[in-house]
């Protein structure tokens, strides 16, 4: 089977809610990374077969196929198409999968995969709720078919995070210690310049250059302990959840022929890609079975993986996943995760991949495994091999 190579990856800094990127139009935000990716790779943009961007809540500035719009906003060739996809939190990771599958099928040679989300401008779940303003039906869980299958069970990421903490016997203190480590790791990574090479600084309206992730906090276990839980008597607080934020990110995926013809030097190859579903009411447990499936398909073991990126939607999600898979914390989210760096939904998949590639190169690791929980009880897994 033909190989799919990751030529390069780039991202914006992550802007906190209401922060540096809040006023940037989503199409311009995505266009920034598309431009940076083309410049970094030196590829003729006209040779790109497709642009696949992940994005959720595709209304307002994110509506109208933002992948196509962003490419045009960037001033890139008209004949290159674009498509926007939604696999919830895994949208841009799925974009990489679709891009790699296009290359591996032999029907495409150069595909841009990425994602964008301005959560400051368009709140999470806005697309689910906007129809109510016009008298349209309420969200998916009100569907008669859904109710027939799942009755009136509450479908909520917050409830799922609580259920996971209870089932896997994860205490609030466990989660707060994990969250603190995420912030500490992220601040260390920033201080040491580990993200500098993967970030394309954004010139803001006032002429200043935005080049550093805004979300990591100076916090402590004492501060976290003083927060009220999201549900009465619960364990989940804002301190152990991912942050609302704004960002874009992109990866160039190439075939062996494109690598040869364009004189490219790939950074990694796609060793494995898969996606699995799990109980949608539990919602956030998907990475557990998805990781087991990926390892079984590849013949790899946890000890063969040098670095893991498991998205920190909530601390309980990653802690349960580590318990079930045996992935050691010292190889998981080593530069911090969504709790510290934010989770710009549609952009997170390729944001994680950008960081994973850079860290594999920094540490000399061979294999990196990326996974994340997604709405509907889904989870993508990508295994990349550094070259």
TrEMBL record:
Top-level division of the source organism's lineage: Bacteria
UniProt keyword list: Acyltransferase, Transferase
EC number(s) reported in the record: 2.3.1.9
Domain Thiolase N-terminal: 5-256
InterPro entries for the chain: Thiolase, Thiolase-like, Thiolase_C, Thiolase_CS, Thiolase_N
Residue span(s) of domain Thiolase C-terminal: 265-386
Record-linked Pfam families: Thiolase_C (PF02803), Thiolase_N (PF00108)
Active site, UniProt feature: 89, 343, 373
Enzyme class: transferase
Gene Ontology molecular function terms on file: acetyl-CoA C-acetyltransferase activity
Family, as annotated: Belongs to the thiolase-like superfamily. Thiolase family.
Record's protein name: Acetyl-CoA C-acetyltransferase
Organism: Nocardioides luti
